[in-house]
Structure formats: structure tokens, C-alpha cells
Amino acid sequence: MRKVITFLKEQAQDGLLPWSAQDATAQRFHLSHAAVELIALQNGLFPARYQRNRNMIQVDEQLRLFQSRVAVIGCGGLGGYVLEELARLGVGQIIAVDPDIFEEHNLNRQILSSPALLGQPKAAVAAERLAQVNPAVTVTAIQDYFCLANGFELLAGAHVAVDALDSIPYRLQLAEYCNLAGIPMVHGAIGGWYGHVASQFPGETTVQQIYRHWVQGKGIEQQLGNPSFTPAVVASLEVAEVCKILLGKGEPLRNRKLAIDLLEMEMQEISYAPAPVTLVDAA
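^ HesA/MoeB/ThiF family protein, sequence as received from the core. Prediction below:
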């Protein structure tokens, strides 16, 4: 270990560790890129790929991100952008959950999709993409639906869960499970020019209150569709919330929803009074 640390420090320039040095260290000492990045951060070396983070995220905070585990439920319109940004941010462990394959109607907005990947599982494609974007990130791809019955298995060890679903029943189940498991949840939804974001911590019911008047069906996305830009905007706001929660910085969207209108370029904050949680037995 001492030899590895010495080698890394010799390769660093102004506290920054170039990717070429990380890669060389992995090959020379037969380590994974994840192991090399962990050793570097633990010894105060900032991987150069994150150098534009340095003015807002300290090296100990970058280490915290790298040691965090985030579950992204849905790898489509919202989820693809969320996964990409989490990997580029430096979140070290990512769970990508989606039962579906890419279809042609996904091509207008889902960043992970392409004509060559039609028919391929979204979760598996996500894992391959993130391995290219940031080889130090560990991605667990799960091609399955999320529900209360399998929630414990799918979200095991997660510090935060991200809702990138297009189904209100499933996102309500996700909110229910996160309360049961004591995991913060970042919720996002989109439809046409519009979207919203909220963060729900254990013991809160913001998501349930947002959909308290829902009766049936997937939601407004089925009526309004989605252009290429709405998922990118809402997903980026979700990732910002995840970053704040993991680092304990700033003010998350707790007990409130940020509603976004891209047609009129307006944002509105809607507050929700804290309410007691009625838990459902997952068994």
C-alpha cells in the first residue's frame, strides 16, 4: 500500500492526479480503478477529472461522494441523465434499476438510447455507458421492476434513492419503501414543458401529498409526452438534490416541491405541511 501511495504522489501535479496516472497505477499494482481512486482521495489527492469540482467540493467531500451508494430507479428519460451526472460527479456506487428495453419512441429524449441499442436492456446499457464515462464508478445493473416485495434487495446499502419512474403507483411504492428503510428519496416527474422536483426524508409524506388526488393511470406524461430538454432539466435538479443530501450541504427541497414551467420559463415553490406517515407492511 505504501508503494501505491508513493507512486500516486509522485504522479500528482499541484494536488491533482491525472487519469493517465490512475490508469498506470491500476495496471502496475493490479488494482481496480475504483481502488486506486479510493486510495488517492484518502490521501488527499484530487483526481484531475474532478478538478472543476474543487471550488465547491473539498477533497474530503469528494471522498464522501465516492464512498456513497445511490440507487436510481428507472433508466429512461430522467434516469439516463441522472446516471450520467452521478458518474461524472464522482458518486462511487450506483444501482441502476429498470425492467425495460430501449424502443424507438425513446430516441427523442433518452440520452442512453440510440438506434444501434434498440431492443437492448436499459439497465445493462447504463452500466456499459457509465463504465466508459468513469471507470472508477461501480455500477450494479438490475433488470427488474421495483416494488415493495423486492425493495429491500434492490436498494440494499443505498444512501439515497432517486425516483426516475414514469409510473405513479410505482413511485408511491418507492416512497413507501424509502420510509420503511429510512432512506432519503429524491423525486422527479416530467410531462411536456413541465416538471417538478422534491426531496423526501424518512418520516415525511411529500410525495404522497403531491399525488393525493391521483386516481389511476401513469400520469400527465402520457398526455403531454416529453421533448428532449425537459428530462435533462429535471434530472439535473434531482442530481443537485442528491449531492446536497450526500454532503449535508445547502437546503434540500424538504416538505416542498419545485414546479418548473419551461414554456413560460417560470419556477414556483409549493410547500407541503409535514404529515404523519402510515407505513405498509412490505410482507
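The CA atoms of residues 93 and 190 lie 26 Å apart.
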